[in-house]
Structures are given as C-alpha cells and as structure tokens.
Amino acid sequence: MHRLSKASDSGSGSTSVTLRDVAKDTGFHVTTISKALRSHPSIPEATRKVIQGAAQRLGYSPNPVMSALTRFRSAPPSDSHRRCFAFITSSHAFSCEDLRCSPIDMYAGASGEARRLGFELLTIVAGEGEDLRWISSFFNQVQVCGYIVAGDVPGMSSLDLTRLPVCTAGICTTGGVPCRVEIGINHQADVLLLIRRLASLGYRRAGLVLGSRLSNDDARYAAAFLDASVTQSAELIVPILSLSQTDTRSSSGMVLELDAWIRANDVDVVVSPDVGACNLVKRLAALETKPFFAGLSLPRDFGPTIAGVRADFAGMGAQAVAALAGILNTGGRKDAFSCERILLGGYWTDGANARSSLPQTNVV
Amino acid sequence: MKTLVTMADIARRLGVHVSTVSLALRDHHSIPPDTRMQVRKTANLLGYKRDPLLDAFNRRLNVETPVRGSKEFLFITTEDPSSGPDPEIFSQVVEGAATAAMGLGNSFELVQVGGTKLPLSRIPAILRTRGACGVLLHGRALFDFFRERDWPNLCVLVYGCDGKNGVFDHIDYDYHGAFEYACAQLRRRGCVRLGFLLSHSKDSSRQRLLLNAFQAYQYLCPADQRVSPLSLCSASGSGIVNQIKDWLARESPDAVISDSSDVMAFLLESGANIPEALRFVSLGVSGLPNEISGIVPAWSNIGIQAIERLNAMYEACRCGVPASPLSICVQGAWNEGTTIVPGGKPHSMGVPPQPMA
Q1: This prediction's pTM
Q2: pLDDT > 60? residue B221
Q3: pLDDT above 70 covers what percent of chain B?
Q4: What's the CA gap between B141 and B127, in Å, rounded?
Q5: How far apart are CA B316 and CA B337, in angstroms?
Q6: Is A265 helix (H, G, I), strand (E, B) or coil?
Q7: Mean pLDDT of B31-36
Q8: Per the CB < 8 Å rule, is B329 touching A175?
Q9: Residue B299, pLDDT above cutoff 90
Q10: Subunit contact B311:A312, Cβ cutoff 8 A
C-alpha cells in the first residue's frame, strides 16, 4: 500500500484532503488518482509523478481506517494481510555439477524462517531453458513482496523485475542476477574454523589444493588461506598447490604432482574445495604418502564420511528471508542493486577418515 | 482451542501489566530495554500477531502521540575519531550511521572509551544508563571485552578489519568483492596481465586483505598472465619512481590495480602512458577523484547499513552471541573515469562475471 509521509502541519485539517481534492487539482479522474497513488502499473510513470507530487503538496494522506477496511473487503479475510516471498531455483541448480549449492537445504531454512516471521513462501523451480518472463506478471498477481534466487537460475538474468516494488536476495548466485542482498559462503571463517579444528586434532602441516576447474570461490579460499598464514599459526600452513595448470596432463600426472608437493612441503592434511582433489588423495593411498583429506564446503551427499567444513545452506536460506523481512520492515531501499553481501560460516563435520585423537608420532 | 494470542496472554505469562506489554511492543522509552526485549521474545514465542484492523484504527492515535522508534543505538569505539589511522573514513561511517538512525527515528550516540578517561569496565554502566538496545563496536580491545561476557538483551555488531575472527556479526567494506569487480571490469576491456601496486599508506590490515586477494587471484590465471605485485610500503622519495619503472619493465602489465589513487602520480612520473598503454584502476580506499577509474567505497553507506542491520537484529531478537556469526560486506560503486579505455556494458556492482569466462 502506498503511504505518504504525513505533512508537517499538525493542524486538525489533515483529514480534510481527499482523493477528490487531488483530482480537482490535477484534472485527472478520482480513479486515476487512486490507482496512481497505489503505483498501479496501468498508470503511466509521468502521470504518477504529477499526481504524487500534487498529493504531497496538498498534504494528502490516506485514511488508515478506510484503507484497512477496503483492503479487508477486497481480499478474503485470511489473505487480508498476507505477506509473501517467492523462492526461485532451477533444475540446473539441482543438478549442478560442482554441487556447491544445495537448493533443498536452502529451501528448508528459508521456509522455516518464513514461518517464524509470518511470511508465505512460494516455490518456483525453473526448467532447463525455460522462458521465465511469466514471473513478473505472476508476482503482480499474487503480490509478492520479495523473492529469493537460490543458486544459478539461467533465465533470471534476462528478466527485468526492477519495476516491481519487490526486493531481491540471491543465495550463492555466480552472477547475472542483480540483487539487493547477496548471501554466500564466508570463506574466511570456514578456513579459520578448519585450521583450528585441524590443529586441535594434532595435524602439523595443512596445504590447500585448488582443483582443475577454478572459480571465484577458489580464489576466495586461497585468499583466506593466505590471510590465515599471517594471522594464525604460520607453521601449520604451506604454499598452495593449483592443479589448474595440469589440465592437459592425465590424472595420474596430477597424482604424481600432488605426491611431489606433499613430500616437498611435508603436508599431512590436504584441504580442498574440490571433489576431484579428494579422489586424487584416495589414489595416493597406493603410494607411500597417506595424507588426511579435509573438505571445504563439499556437498553433503558427496562422501558423507569425509571430514571437513560444510556450508550452512539452511542458514543461508533463513538469512535470505530474514534479510528481506528486515528490508521490508525498515522500509529500506528495494532497488535491485546489490549493495551488501552477507556471509555465513559453515560447520565442521567429523568424517570416518578423521583422527579422533592425537596422531601417533612415529617419526619422532 | 484458543487460537488468538492477545497482549493479555503475554502480560500474564511475564507477570507484567498489559500496558507494559503494549508500550514495550511499540518500543516506548519508558520501558527498560531489557523488559522490552523480554516482552518481544515472549510475544514471538506465543505467536502474537498484531490485528491489522485494530492497528489501522490506532494508527491515527500513534501519529498524534508517536512512541515507536525510540531505540537507542551506541557506536562504541576505542579510537580517537580525530586522530585514528583514518579519521576521514571513520567520520564518514559515523555520519552515515547517524543519518540512518535519524531516518528510522532512533537515537544514536558516539561513545569513545579506553584510555584514562573511560575504562572499558564502565561499559555495562554506560549501556544501562543510556538504555542501549544495540551497539556498534570498533576497536580490538572492545571485541575482547564483549566476547568475554554474555549480552542476553543487547544486539552487537562489529565494524572494522580486525573483527573478522570474532564471535559477533561483523560489518565492513567488501574488499575482496571490490577487487574481484575491478578485475572483471579490466578483463572485459581486454586486459590480460593485471598488476597490483600496493601504496605506502600506513593501514596495514586493509592492505593485507587486498594483497591476499590479488595473490589468490593469480591462481585463477594461466601461468603466462601472472604478475608479481609491487609494494611501496618501504620505499620513499625518488626510490619509488625507480622501483615502479623497474617493475613495469620487468612485469609489463596491461593494467595496474592499486589500493590508493595516490599511486597514479608515481605511475605518470615513471613514464607510464595512461590509459593508452597502461590502464589504471584504484580501489579508492581513501577517496577517489572523479577522473580516476575505480571503486568508490562509500563509507557512509557502511554506517547506514550497520544501523539498519542493528534495527533488524533488534526486531528479530537477535541478541548476544549468535550461534553462527554473519559477516556483512558492504559494496562500493563503480566510477567510470578516464584512466581505462571504454568498453563493456554497464553492470551492476556485486555480480562480477567469472574471470575465466
């Protein structure tokens, strides 16, 4: 509902300005005025500006009792104050190859938080290559006040929803969708948590291995590792190995390179955000070096026995809803330009491959 | 079965009067913040919802005697606002916070503690007397002080580079995001070899973050596109120009990214042809002149976001030590200056395309 700021004059005359007065002043029909003040899409932008300007000048403010009553009358009682968010994900995100995002967990978190805050949550799963332009009219129909894009939704980038008075949150989107709030992995916190855990498990030298397919996520993990080597215990951290340059070589070549790196740096824990690196470490078992593997935001269903830090996707979903609700409540800007990124740390899971106590040091 | 939860239910549960509940839910200043928060929590627990129709009837009343929005937010700092490492940045953050608080109808105050005047041990007393609902902290000593205690009815947000390892929610400029965005902009304009020049400013923690971001970025580049960064931290006088000359000759970068726009003068002095042969992008940590391309951090925006965040935290009863702390990175805005060649379509901040694309 459109609400104008109350004019500063505190006189009792504030009730006297009605839609009719604004209509008389501007020369438009009362219906036009009513629609324009509610930012109805059928009224041209220029007209709306003129009318809103006139309304402000005259000091018009909608009678809250009347508007509550009309709202009450125009919609079924159960829906009279319904507040609704949409949760958009794609079949692509479900079957995403690097499995860095999990829309199901995100939805679980988002729906829980939405229930707690009294919002309805609609779900839209976009099919492969689906034309998503129906979404904007659908949003108008059901009066969605915000939407969440979870993972990569290819069709969303071509969609122009900036005209709608909705705010957007993106979870782990890798670009293309402009959103007000972005929610993602806190790489720095994840690395710190991992290093602290590894130290408490008694490991001495941890090395980060970047996989053969690199993304911004990998760079952020690398930066966090470099940062940790300055602020935390420097002796635990060794130079980073990047396998991206070995694309042309066979995987056995990669195994050899990994082995050489482990020997050269005396690594006893291989840390990696890459599923491929985990498989390489498994193949190392045939060789003499047997490092422990710890994952960084590996998918939950990939090797549940692998220890490491997992991303809190449910928490991200919850934060997305909370952020949207916060923006709605404070009347913050809804423009579709991302201006903040909210980062969530993950949680440690013990895997079957982790040492539960101090390792036996048969070297010393 | 009774379905509608009323204020009377909350009052009965807490053993307070209905008026207290009513006033507390509207954040009236006559109710102590602790009580307000307790009422809020109980209301959430019982599933209390305001009746929209009654609300509308009462709104006229509320307009005549406004009680909402009297939350008190404090910005506590150990840094002297005028003589800290970045007085300019700090004052912008404070200004933004003050504006946002005023916009939301809340009160806001800057409190400087530490030193001989106000020992940290006085903080609980200060919070009590001011009736603070939320605090924004700045300074390492404060994080240590706050993390050792339990704050069941206080919203805590930390600002600054040093707070990342903390237990509380943290807000700061998105250094890594700014760097990623600058790289993406340069790549879209055909630059391949990106160099990084670290200015000789004294703020080491910010510089470290940016330098790490650059070094991590090197892993994304093919071997022939890697450039080693140059730090001007220890150089001075004419040594700077010679160092830059050597570095440019050795690394031959297409573009230079720097944390400060002051570096531009040195680059010109060392004979760099900007923007034809060498592009320059500044991450403008300490201000960005209009003609230089780069990212304007908009520090006041951090203050605004911080207060909006605290307000939202208070509404959602997110008090004390959170189960999983959030890190909020506020992004800057791109400034299309004359130190890079035009090209690439305008792009909203924060959604940089993949550098490897």
Answers
A1: 0.75
A2: yes
A3: 86
A4: 17
A5: 42
A6: helix
A7: 84
A8: no
A9: no
A10: no
Which residues of chain B are within 8 Å of residue A118 when distances are taken between CB atoms? 49
Contact of A219 with B220, CB cutoff 8 Å: yes
Longest dimension (CA), chain B: 84
**Structure tokens given for A363:** 């070297």
Inter-chain CB proximity B356 and A215 less than 8 Å? yes
Q: Do B222 and A245 count as a contact with CB atoms less than 8 A apart? A: yes
The span from the CA of A145 to the CA of A116, in Å, is 17
Is the Cβ–Cβ distance between B311 and B106 less than 8 Å? yes
| Cα dihedral A281/A283/A289/A293 (nearest 10) | 20
Rounded Cα–Cα distance for residues A213 and A217 (Å): 11
Nearest Cβ partner for B324 among A72, A336, A344: A344
| Residue whose entry in the numeric block shows the structure tokens 């209009």 | B290
- The residues pairing with A237 across neighbouring beta strands, listed in sequence order, are A206
- Hey, is the C-beta of A70 within 8 angstroms of any chain B C-beta? no
- Indicate yes or no: CB of A69 within 8 angstroms of CB of B104: no
- Beginning with the edge strand found earlier in the chain, give each strand of the sheet holding A347-349 in spatial order: A241-242, A206-210, A269-272, A292-296, A308-310, A347-349
Closest CA to A96 of A153, A171, A135: A153
From chain A, pick out residues whose CB is under 8 angstroms from the CB of B40: none
Dihedral sign for Cα atoms in the order A193, A197, A200, A206? negative
Which range among A343-347, B198-202, B233-237 has the greatest average pLDDT?
A: A343-347
Partnered with residue B158 across adjacent β-strands are: B137, B170
Residues of B in contact with A240 (CB under 8 A): 219
Instruction: Name the residue in chain A with its Cα closest to that of B176.
Output: A220
Question: Which pLDDT score, from 0 to 100, does residue B135 have?
Answer: 92
Task: Indicate the pairing of strand B107-112 with strand B194-198.
Answer: unpaired
**How many other β-carbons are positioned within 10 Å of the β-carbon of residue A25?**
16
B205 token code pair: 């923690």
Q: Is the model's pLDDT at B17 over the cut of 90?
A: yes
B124-147 per-residue burial string, b: 16 or more CB within 10 A, e: under 16: eebbeebbbbbbbbbbeebbebbe
- Kindly provide the residue ranges of all beta strands, DSSP E only, lying in chain B, ordered along the sequence: 72-77, 107-112, 134-138, 155-159, 169-173, 194-198, 230-231, 255-258, 279-282, 294-296, 326-330, 333-335
The more confidently predicted of residues A112 and A357 is A112
Residues A169 and A148 sit within 8 Å (Cβ to Cβ): yes
∠ CA A62-A66-A68 to the nearest 5 degrees? 95
% of chain A with per-residue pLDDT over 90: 4
**Residue A51, exposed/middle/buried by CB under 10 A (0-12, 13-18, 19+)?**
buried
